[in-house]
Amino acid sequence: MTNRLFRISSAVMATGLMFGLAFSATAQTTSSKMEGLKLSNDAPIQIQSDQLEIKDQEKRAFFTGNVQVVQGTTTMKAGKMTVLYKGEGASVTSGSTDIDKIFLDDTVFLTSGTQQATAEKGEFDMTSQTFVLSGKQVVLSEGANVFRGCKLTVQMATGQAKLDSCGGRVEIMLDPKSRPKQ
């Protein structure tokens, strides 16, 4: 299935791919509400990869090679994406899956407008509604504002987020010019 375009219903994947990545200039250094990059439940999602392997018996789908997920103005890229799903008779190709977890590997890049995040890997846990980006360095940016740590944990239901350091301290660079005009 090399170089094929796969569309999966947004009701299935949007739940699994909700994420927020914007810090405001007034954010605390380790915890903030993140409401930036969010996928919509009612817009189509386009997934592209060099290869797709579906193992319905194991309830797994493996997207490999230049994986790109696009919904509206939000784009996610990774080298590999593994989707674990559940449910009797569930099949990715029919769009009848209930997503359990999504694993992203081989450099993860998320972007929407001026907001970006990069990490070595990512994980969406749909049961706990938690999204984690991790690696040697997780970099979040919105315009000129940059945040660096090693682990970003986002509670998808609330948008609450926590950025953990790499054993030292979390780094933040804020540009005063990025503050909203009053």
From TrEMBL:
Cellular component, GO annotation: cell outer membrane; outer membrane-bounded periplasmic space
GO BP annotations listed: lipopolysaccharide transport
An example molecular function term from Gene Ontology annotations: glycolipid transfer activity
Keyword annotations from UniProtKB, A to Z: Signal
InterPro entries: LPS_export_LptA, OstA-like_N
Origin: domain of life: Bacteria
Signal peptide: 1-27
Protein's UniProt keywords contain Signal: yes
PANTHER family reported in the protein's UniProt record: LIPOPOLYSACCHARIDE EXPORT SYSTEM PROTEIN LPTA
Protein's name in the database: Lipopolysaccharide export system protein LptA
Organism: Rhizobium soli
Lineage: Bacteria, Pseudomonadati, Pseudomonadota, Alphaproteobacteria, Hyphomicrobiales
